[in-house]
Amino acid sequence: MQTERRAYGREVERQLRERLTATGFQPTTAPNRGNVGTPRLLPAAGAFYGECSLYGRRADLLIGLGDGRTMAIEAKDSSSVLNSVKRVLNDTAAKARYWNTKMGEQIIPVALLSGVFGLDTLKAAQASGLFLVWAHNLDGFTEWLLAHQASS
Fold first, then answer.
1. Which domain holds residue 23?
2. How far apart are CA 150 and CA 60, in angstroms?
3. Which burial class, exposed, middle or buried, applies to 62 when counting CB atoms under 10 A from its CB (0-12, 13-18, 19+)?
4. Burial per residue of 91-126, b for 16 or more beta-carbon CB atoms within 10 angstroms, e otherwise
5. Which stretches of the chain score pLDDT less than 70?
6. Which residues touch 57 (CB under 8 Å, ≥6 apart)?
7. Which of 40, 47, 62, 131 has the most crowded Cβ, counting Cβ within 10 A?
8. In angstroms, rounded to a whole number, what is the distance separating the alpha carbons of residues 34 and 26?
9. Quick one: pLDDT at residue 8?
């Protein structure tokens, strides 16, 4: 069960990639052998990259948005409140702060969450600039992305 649970984050990533493709986003190979370190290497609007390095820190997905910004998604699964501190604050929120120093408001860091998380941990992550999306609401998130593309 623990092994299956640890692999769930990858399954959520796969499901999101499928939904993005089904709704018209174009899967694209990240340039520069997956090392995205300048704005010109970011995905175009309506395109997305799978796992790559964004300014030296790994991102699970990068999605180009219609307004010129890029969404960096990290899928995180946690089996306990204690584990959620490491998964969200020490891993993902730290990346969000780093990316924001490199890219400012051009980057939208998102944690795609499944499992058990402490409320205080989630509040601290949001306060650091990380947006939270729950894996059980992938359809709603995909609809929001589509609406954002259409209005930009």
1. 2-151
2. 24
3. buried
4. bbbebbebbbeebeeebbbbbbbbbebbeebbeebe
5. 1-9, 150-152
6. 95, 98, 99
7. 62
8. 16
9. 66
Number of DSSP helices (H) and strands (E) in the chain, helices first:
7, 9
Is the CB of residue 26 less than 8 Å from the CB of residue 35? no
For residue 72, give the CATH number of its domain: 3.40.50
List the structure tokens of 11. 């399954």
Q: What pLDDT sits at residue 4?
A: 55
Beta bridge partners of 132: 111
Global pTM reads 0.90
Total domains in the fold of the chain: 1
Strand duo 61-64 + 70-78: pairing: antiparallel
For 97, the token pair is 């702060």
